[in-house]
Design a protein that fits this description.
The chain is of the alpha/beta class. Helices cover 28% and strands 27% of the residues. The longest helix is centred in the N-terminal third of the chain and has 15 residues.
């Protein structure tokens, strides 16, 4: 006797419909019907407009700013739980507040842990996300976490590029593990950009550790916010003799003067995924879709198949 399966129902939060529709297309299902009503003061009330009783429900919502995206996801989970959904998975392509994963100074919150607690309290059974800022955030959850890896997307992209003279780099010491993975994957060298930070989102100086003279450099990072670090790292690499600099950054937060910083930088190109929608177009920014990867992961989760198998290249 096989393992019984439940009907799959995919729903999208308000700000992630652009991605959820493509995920649903690749999965072969229509998005479920829901409406998010708002009171005049901004308070929201999501309404799931079809039965989810006994169903395997996936809510797709990246939790980038504002905090309404997270609140909406929590309310959707609570609504499905109270409607007797069989199993609820929060598909969070970009997991907001992940950078606040430890106490790096007195009297600050560990916000990533708080968000994990909130999701669990709302009634979620499983979380699916991609490229957390730190792998150990998975340990903040007391429920299963499917941690998808963007290298399944970027490795295919890089195979279409001329890598004969390339080298991989980390824009800071914290991202060395991520960049080293690409260096090993393609049999290339690794260099490190050691940054001295003045304060949050402000970098004082960057020192390049390694030889980049005459090389095409690929910077690897999980997200790009104001792009200050990335642009300063690109400048430092060019100053050290690099021929060109490109960057692979999964989550395009791109706040503040990010677009202007990128436009005026030494970066030849910034390649991101669509976990967060771009606020404006830029000739230097290329977007790769993560929808097919998430659709395959959702199918594997529903069919009790390995998620890790998706990343074995």
């Amino acid at each position: 006797m096989g393992i019984p399966t439940m009907d799959v129902k995919l729903f999208s939060g308000t700000e992630s419909q652009y991605l959820a529709k493509t995920i649903a297309y690749h999965y072969g299902e229509e998005l479920g019907k829901l409406e998010v009503k708002k009171f005049s003061d901004g308070e929201m009330q999501p309404i799931i407009e079809e039965s989810v009783r006994g169903s395997y429900v996936f809510f797709i919502q990246s939790t980038f700013g504002p905090a309404d995206n997270l609140m909406e996801l929590l309310l959707l989970i609570d609504g499905a739980k109270r409607a007797s959904a069989g199993y609820i998975t929060a598909v969070i392509p970009y997991f907001g507040y992940a950078r606040q994963d430890r106490k790096d100074k007195p009297r600050v919150p560990i916000s990533a842990k708080l968000v994990a607690n909130m999701l669990k309290a709302a009634g979620v059974d499983r979380v699916m996300t991609m490229d957390l800022h730190a792998d150990q955030i998975q340990g903040f959850f007391d429920i299963p976490v499917d941690h998808l890896q963007s290298d399944a997307i970027y490795s295919q992209y890089l195979k279409t590029q001329d890598l004969s003279n390339c080298i991989f780099a980390s824009p800071d010491v914290g991202g060395v593990k991520r960049a080293r993975k690409y260096a090993k994957m393609f049999g290339k060298q690794l260099v490190i950009c050691d940054k001295e930070r003045q304060e949050a989102n402000k970098v004082k100086a960057i020192t390049v550790i390694g030889d980049v003279k005459g090389k095409d450099v690929y910077l690897i990072d999980d997200l790009v916010d104001t792009a200050g670090t990335l642009c300063k790292a690109a400048q430092a690499l060019i100053d050290e003799g690099a021929t060109s600099v490109r960057a692979l950054c999964t989550h395009a937060v791109l706040s503040g003067n990010a677009y202007e910083n990128i436009k005026n930088s030494q970066l030849d190109k910034l390649i991101v995924t669509d976990t967060i929608p771009l606020k404006q177009k830029s000739e230097k920014i290329e977007v790769l879709s993560c929808a097919r990867l998430f659709s395959r992961a959702i199918r594997n989760a529903h069919e009790f198949k390995s998620i890790a198998a998706l990343f074995l290249q």
